[in-house]
Amino acid sequence: MANDFNSHTFYNKLKEDRQLVGVKCTACGHLSPEPRPMCPECHGFDMEWHQFSGKATLSTFTCISVVPVLMAEKGYGRDNPYCSGIVTLEEGPRISARINGVDGNNPQSIKTGMDVILDFDDLDIEFPSLAFKPA
Ligand SMILES: [Zn+2]
């Protein structure tokens, strides 16, 4: 098979092609934001890449002030919390991601349901994580 349904290919597509992709089961149509070779619904192996628009809405979030080292290196910490959340892609699947461009010190200013888009400029390929920002 030409495509490997794994996170390496997933992040290559993100970084090189600036495409957010998931996999779609050609048997039952189930869409998964996680690259995986087997359909979680029907357990079929007939998967194909599916390109997402990168548009989403914020479903839930939390602001984190006790941060891992990698985030501390980015300037986050007790005085500058970062936000992490679950976004719902416009295609339906939910995905966990960091939320950029919001005030972690002022969580009440962050609204669930707001439109967000994938932030291609903040991809940690070594420590893969996705980030979204207000649309
Ligand atoms: Zn399926």
Small molecules bound: zinc ion
The CATH level-2 architecture of the largest domain is identified as: Beta Barrel
Nearest-angstrom radius of gyration? 16 Å
The main sheet comes to:
5 strands, mixed, barrel
In percent, how much strand structure appears in the residues? 25-35%
Low-confidence stretches: none
- CATH topology of the largest domain, anyone? OB fold (Dihydrolipoamide Acetyltransferase, E2P)
Report mean pLDDT, rounded to a whole number: 90
**Topology, number of strands:** 8
The number of helical elements comes to 2
Classify the secondary structure makeup into a structural class: mainly beta
Percent range of helical residues: 10-25%
Q: Strand order across the biggest sheet?
A: 4-5-6-8-7
User: How many distinct folded domains?
Assistant: 2
**In CATH's first tier, which class of the largest domain applies?**
Mainly Beta
Question: What is the distance, rounded to the nearest whole angstrom, between the alpha carbons of the first and last residues?
Answer: 36 Å
In short:
This protein has 135 residues and is mainly beta.
